[in-house]
Amino acid sequence: MIAMSDKENGDLEERAIDILRQYKDGVLQSELWKTLGISSREGSRLVLRLIRRGVVRREEVTVNGRRTYKLYAVKAGAPTFSIKVDVSSILDIPCAACPRLSECGAGGYYDPSTCPLLEAWLKKEIAKLRVQRVQTAS
Q1: 34-70 pLDDT, tens per residue?
Q2: Phi, psi of 59 (to 5 degrees)
Q3: Domains observed in the chain
Q4: How many Å apart are CA 5 and CA 114, to the nearest integer?
Q5: Is the dihedral of CA 91, 129, 105, 110 positive or negative?
Q6: Residue 32: CB partners within 8 Å, gap ≥ 6?
Q7: Is the pTM of this model over 0.90?
């Protein structure tokens, strides 16, 4: 198998984006492969690169009883979401060291909604947040 160069990949990506932009109702991935003249393997890799770049999104659909994906170009300037997670806020959560963790679940004998250790931890975290809010307001 001959590997594509970065330039060839880039050209292929731009061609794919141009095709997807022409169809606001989306394009079935198999149709994109055919239009580009590439295999499904190459097409899958192409789409994953485009999704990672944030220029394409895909939606699972069923066509003639078979599951496939419909591809859509993401409009330039479309909002992107970034969630920053501070792990320090959950480092001391009691669940991490709980011997019943594997048995815990909503509606079960060990249920997070009735766990006294989790409740105490949540109250402590809420108190910390209130103190921080008061300090920032001052």
Answers
A1: 999 999 899 999 999 998 888 899 999 998 999 999 9
A2: -135, 130
A3: 6-73 (1.10.10.10), 87-137 (no CATH)
A4: 58
A5: positive
A6: 16, 19, 20, 43, 47, 71
A7: no
